[in-house]
């Protein structure tokens, strides 16, 4: 038995070593010429590279940092503590990508969470009584018991609400795995081009079929993609803790409040996922989110993709004919290619990587108008013991079911979320921030030393500038103290268990991970920046104004989250264009 345990630990240690090393074990020499170059080794760039190579396109990935993954990365911030430094949960990755690239075979392991949501109350007025909490998971009967603590009416309505959301989400899933409709191709050009462009209508046809199933719910579908999530949730439910808990998915990562139009779509976007064939499930990747990126990278390398870290692209090369001909690295190295795919944000691609003379002033002006506002400060915390919540105490530092959840703090009611948002739009970090805490080391022992834990605090709302000025280190520490003071109220003893903390404000997320504005979605998921308008109407088909230059990151349709669809769709577009050439 001891030998079996040791072997398992050895395998886990080996997998974690792979994750932390990035692709530095790839000793392939950089060639002077490829068919395709992918700028950025984030998950979408790696997905695009894998499918390009499978399609017979010789491809290389050039990552600026020392480690692969972009925002889906694992890093050892404090000795022995390994963090999903930016993105921290998996759900939205498209199932066909999971299967096609055989990610399990290449080392991907996911810890499923059940229950998945825990919202403790403070309820200061209830002296001597254990504060209430709301826990939700896959067990519908247990969910109804939990909701019934606050409202029996809401408990009766909840199953219908879940079924309603799933019905609406199923209507737009077909759009995720295909490029948007090629409006220009369908309406202009030669007959041959028009016929080729009609392929992009197939997902629309599928959506129409799903829409027929919606029947009388079509107005509800329109409402959820346009309305404030508060309006929808207030119609369904009475209890504030349930409303606020569900509303977090409508504002997560977005500089918006539950009362703003469009927050309903953000909620829908976050329930469209699937993990291990379970709709709407979220899980932890073993070894952190870098484990996913490394699995995709190993799949890509198995097909023949050359993957490189510490290759900082300075400029996309454009020939005298107006077509891309490769890239130049910061060290002066030039690598030529037929096509270039940028996994950077559209803003970074066209403002920093493309020579000014290659694009019109009108186009650059449009790029500058894309909204990258971010409300997020990410805090990574190393602990020497498990947090113990007043609302659900556990003895002897033993984890309870709630410890594996997304733990929603300062989510007792909608007013708290609204106030937090108003602080940020007035130029200051929230005094009582919305907090989503996760403790992945409860399920994944590879992340921290025995008895210790890693904690992710995804906090909102914080502005990019504080009252018009840059963040200082003192600002970061002050905001971190605010966060820890609030966590301490829910879990006394938290502050004394802290071994180390890293505070990443929106400018830090931009600087480290290349997320323009610190926006985790590569651009706001607002209605004016979705589908045919993502990131701009002229860029919705992944093709740029420069022939041979494509976008493949989350700034493209269908948007943000660790999904892989932008990379998949971009790769199909490139392969189609190369065949036509």
TrEMBL record:
Q: Where is the Amine oxidase domain positioned along the sequence? A: 275-559
What Gene Ontology cellular component terms go with this record? mitochondrial matrix
Give the protein name, as stated in the record.
Pyridine nucleotide-disulfide oxidoreductase domain-containing protein 2
Entries under SUPFAM superfamilies matching the protein: FAD/NAD(P)-binding domain (SSF51905)
Q: Which GO molecular function annotations are given, in alphabetical order? A: oxidoreductase activity
Q: What does this protein do?
A: Probable oxidoreductase that may play a role as regulator of mitochondrial function.
Quaternary structure? Interacts with COX5B; this interaction may contribute to localize PYROXD2 to the inner face of the inner mitochondrial membrane.
Protein keywords = FAD, Flavoprotein
Q: Does the keyword field hold Oxidoreductase?
A: no
């Amino acid at each position: 038995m001891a030998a079996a345990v040791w072997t398992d630990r050895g395998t886990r240690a080996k997998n974690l070593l792979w994750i932390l090393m990035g692709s530095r074990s790839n000793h392939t020499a950089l060639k002077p010429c490829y068919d395709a170059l992918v700028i950025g080794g984030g998950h979408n760039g790696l997905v695009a590279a894998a499918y390009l190579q499978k399609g017979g396109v010789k491809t290389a990935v050039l990552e600026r940092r020392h480690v692969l993954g972009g925002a889906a990365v694992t890093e050892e911030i404090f000795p022995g503590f390994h963090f999903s430094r930016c993105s921290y949960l998996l759900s939205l990755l498209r199932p066909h990508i999971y299967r096609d690239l055989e990610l399990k075979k290449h080392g991907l392991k996911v810890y499923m969470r059940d229950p998945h949501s825990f919202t403790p109350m403070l309820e200061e007025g209830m002296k001597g009584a254990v504060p209430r909490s709301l826990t939700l998971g896959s067990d519908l009967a247990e969910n109804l018991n939990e909701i019934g603590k606050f409202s029996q009416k809401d408990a009766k309505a909840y199953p219908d609400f879940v079924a309603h959301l799933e019905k609406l989400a199923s209507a737009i899933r077909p759009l995720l795995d295909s490029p948007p409709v090629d409006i220009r191709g369908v309406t202009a050009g030669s007959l041959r081009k028009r016929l080729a462009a009609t392929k992009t209508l197939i997902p629309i046809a599928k959506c129409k079929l799903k829409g027929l199933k919606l029947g009388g719910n079509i107005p509800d579908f329109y409402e959820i993609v346009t309305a404030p999530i508060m309006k929808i949730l207030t119609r369904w439910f009475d209890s504030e803790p349930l409303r606020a808990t569900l509303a977090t998915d409508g504002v997560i990562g977005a500089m918006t409040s539950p009362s703003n139009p469009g927050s309903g779509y953000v909620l829908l976007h976050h329930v469209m996922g699937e993990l291990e064939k379970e709709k709407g499930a979220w899980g932890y990747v073993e070894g952190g989110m870098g484990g996913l990126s490394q699995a995709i990278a190993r799949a890509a390398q198995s097909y023949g993709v050359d993957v490189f870290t510490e290759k900082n692209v300075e400029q996309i090369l454009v020939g005298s004919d107006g077509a891309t001909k490769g890239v130049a690295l910061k060290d002066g190295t030039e690598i030529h290619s037929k096509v270039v795919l940028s996994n950077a944000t559209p803003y970074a691609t066209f403002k920093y990587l493309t020579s000014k003379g290659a694009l019109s002033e009108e186009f650059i002006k449009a790029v500058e108008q894309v909204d990258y506002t971010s409300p997020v400060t990410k805090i990574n915390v190393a602990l020497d013991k498990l947090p113990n919540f007043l609302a659900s105490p556990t003895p002897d530092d033993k984890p309870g079911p709630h410890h594996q959840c997304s733990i929603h703090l300062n989510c007792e009611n909608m007013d708290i979320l609204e106030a937090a948002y108003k602080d940020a739009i007035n130029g200051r970090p929230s005094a009582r921030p919305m907090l989503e805490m996760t403790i992945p080391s409860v399920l994944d022992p590879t992340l921290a030393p025995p008895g210790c834990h890693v904690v992710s605090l995804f906090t909102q709302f914080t502005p990019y500038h504080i009252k018009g000025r840059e963040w200082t280190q003192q600002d970061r520490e002050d905001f971190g103290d605010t966060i820890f003071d609030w966590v301490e109220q829910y879990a006394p003893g938290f502050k004394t268990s802290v071994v180390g903390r890293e505070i990443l404000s929106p400018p830090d997320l931009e600087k480290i991970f290349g997320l323009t504005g610190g926006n985790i979605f590569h651009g706001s998921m607002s209605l004016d920046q979705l589908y045919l308008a993502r990131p701009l109407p002229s860029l919705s088909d992944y093709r740029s104004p420069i022939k041979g230059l494509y976008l493949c990151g989350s700034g493209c349709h269908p948007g943000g989250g660790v999904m892989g669809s932008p990379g998949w769709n971009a790769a199909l577009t490139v392969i189609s264009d190369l065949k036509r050439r």
